[in-house]
Description:
It is a single chain. This protein has one domain: NAD(P)-binding Rossmann-like Domain (Rossmann fold, 3-Layer(aba) Sandwich). It has eight helices and 13 strands. The chain has helices at residues 11-22, 72-82, 129-144, 165-172, 192-205, 220-228, 263-267, 275-287, and strands at 2-6, 26-31, 44-47, 61-66, 86-94, 148-153, 155-157, 177-178, 186-187, 189-191, 211-212, 218-219, 237-238. The strands form four sheets. The protein has a seven-stranded parallel β-sheet, sandwiched between helices. Strands 7-10 form a two-stranded parallel ribbon. The protein has a two-stranded parallel sheet with strand order 8-13. Strand 5 (86-94), helix 3 and strand 6 form a beta-alpha-beta unit. The longest helix is centred in the middle third of the chain and has 16 residues, at 129-144. It is globular and about 55 Å long. Keywords: Oxidoreductase.
Amino acid sequence: MRLLVLGGTKNLGRHVVEAALRDDHEVTLFNRGLTNPALFPDVRRITGDRAAPDALAAGEWDGVIDMSGFLVRDVSLSAAVLRDRCGHYTYMSSIAVYASQTDLGMTESAPLLGWPAGAPEDHFTMDLYGPSKVRNESLLTATFGTRTAAVRSGFVIGPHNPDFGNWGWALAHGRPLECAARPGQPIQYVDARDLAAFLLLVTVAGLPGPFNAVGPTQTLATLAETWRAVVPDPPPINWSPSMDRFHLPHDGSNDGTFHLSNTHARTNGLHLRPDTETARDYITWVHDGNTPPDPPH
């Protein structure tokens, strides 16, 4: 299958490309060529910017996986160019799209955030992250109809990814785990390799979305004990570190964000590996000389 990956050289994106190459798909990358330019030397590259995607007008692909769609203006431009040049368009979205942060068990049909009046479509701020993902999902559906899917995830864990990287580094070096969120904070995450495989599956099969691509709900205390159990003589947990990497309120006002239903995604092929496997692999990755990337914000 001829696949176009927008982005594809960092974090989750590199796992998507690796999965596609393992399955013998013909991959083309479109990005600025600034991040890990030596990665995937045998893969065709089109160098360009999301703000000016005209270079894509010379190609045709069976599927597109959009890993870099943030600004509404940029997604709109690429969608216009690719509308008649691709079969299926899979968009990497976010669980930040939901209007409620307290409702439990939300499915993909739960109400979504609105677009703030007067907000710019060509400028990114964290306040616009969720609304931008909603707006991008909407414009892609308007452009591609059932030929598009939005895959919504939250924390993405595993080698080359920043989320929970401080835990992997700490366990690899025998240092205390740090977590500023409350021990009873509910959490859902997904291994980057499982998410990459699902993004590829959705694209190849041409499945319409959206999908909540998240793992089961558990508390941070339970998850921390699971990670600690994979090393001998595990270090303690510091629940009051000076730096908060989660930025989650302690009053439960966003607990619904991590109580999402993943039934639709699981039914359609999302495979979730055990937490112990993810933890061991991250620790091994650090032992191999790698450093977890900094959180994006």
